[in-house]
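Regression check, adenosine-5'-triphosphate case 326:
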Amino acid sequence: MLEVRNLIKKYGDKTAVNDITFTVPDGRVTGFLGPNGAGKSTTMRMLVGLEKPTNGTALVDGQKYRSLVSPLTSVGALLDAKAMHPGRSGRAHLRSLALTHGIPTRRVDEVIELTGLTTAARKKVRGFSLGMGQRMGIAASLLGDPQNIILDEPVNGLDPEGVIWVRNLARHLASKGKCVLISSHLMSEMSQTADDLIVIGRGRILANSSMSDFLALADNSRSLVRTDQREVFAETLTARSITFEPVDTDGLLVQAPSRDIARLGVDAGVLLHELTPQIATLEDVYMNMTRNEVEYQSGTFTTPADSGAAEADAPSPWAGKEAKEQ
Ligand SMILES: Nc1ncnc2c1ncn2[C@@H]1O[C@H](COP(=O)(O)OP(=O)(O)OP(=O)(O)O)[C@@H](O)[C@H]1O
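Current build output:
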C-alpha cells in the first residue's frame, strides 16, 4: 500500500505538490492523472525517496522509503527509463542492480522474459529504441518482485502491442494482490487499465474515486441528432428553450432525453435520420475537470471557417443556444 499524507513539495516559490492526501490500495490498479506539470512525477519521486517532502509524509507499506529494510522488494518504480549506463547491455544493467540488492541472477532472466526483451537485452543500452528503454525500465522496477509498483508514463513510446502488454501486466500484478500506481496521459488506455483514479491539477487533488464513480460524473444527457431539416428542427428546439449546438453540416447536439427529441421530431414533422445518446468517455470527464488546471495551455488552430467573419454569417437558428447560455 502506498500513502501520502498532507504532502507538500516546494521548489523555491513554486509549489509543485500542494497538501495532498491519498491511499493507493493493494490488489488494484490506480491511475494517476493530471495535466503536464500537475505534480504527478514529483509525488512519485517522493514516494521512493528521490525528493524530500517540504512537509507531510510519503509512505510505502506504512514506512518512509529510507526506513525500508529491502527497498527493491517493497517498491519498484519506473520513473526515468533513460537512467541507464549507455555502454552496458540491458542484461548487464539489470544484473548490476540485482547484485547490489542481493537478488538472484535467475530473477534477471525472468524479468527479461516477462518484458519481452530476450533478444534486445544483449544489446548496448545506447542502441535501445524508446520502447525498448521503457520495457527495460519496467523490467528493473519488477526485479525485486515488489509489493508496490509505481510506473510513471509506462506506455510512453510503446507500440500498440506494448501498450496492451503494459495493460495486461498491470492487471496481472493487481490480481496477485500488488499495489499498482500508474500515471498516463492516454485516457482511453487508462479507462481500460485502472480500477481507481486519482486526478491532480496544480498540485492539488481534484478527484479520488473508483473508475465507475468518476465516470458517473459524466454529462450523459445529450444526444446527437442528424436531419436534412436542421434549421427547422433548431427552431423547434429554440421555441421549447432546449439547448443545442450545431455539429458538422447536418447534426445537432441536443441537451434533452432522446425519447423527448424523437417525439419533437414527430410533432414538428421533421425526419431525424440519426438519434444517438452521447455516452461521455473518461477523456470527456477528465477534460471537463481539468479545464482550468492546465499549466501549459495549448494554442488553438483556426481555419477561415472558424473566424469571426464566418460566425457573423452563421444561420440564425443557433441563437437558441446562445440565448440560453447568456
Ligand atoms: N527539480 C525541480 N525544480 C523546480 N521545479 C520543478 C522541479 N521538478 C518539478 N518541478 C515543477 O513542479 C511542477 C510539477 O512537476 P511534475 O514533473 O511533478 O509534473 P507532472 O504532473 O509529472 O507533469 P508531466 O505530466 O508533464 O510529467 C512543474 O511545474 C515542474 O516544472
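Comparison notes: The first strand starts at residue 2 and ends at 11. The CA atoms of residues 8 and 55 lie 5 Å apart. No diff flagged against the previous build.
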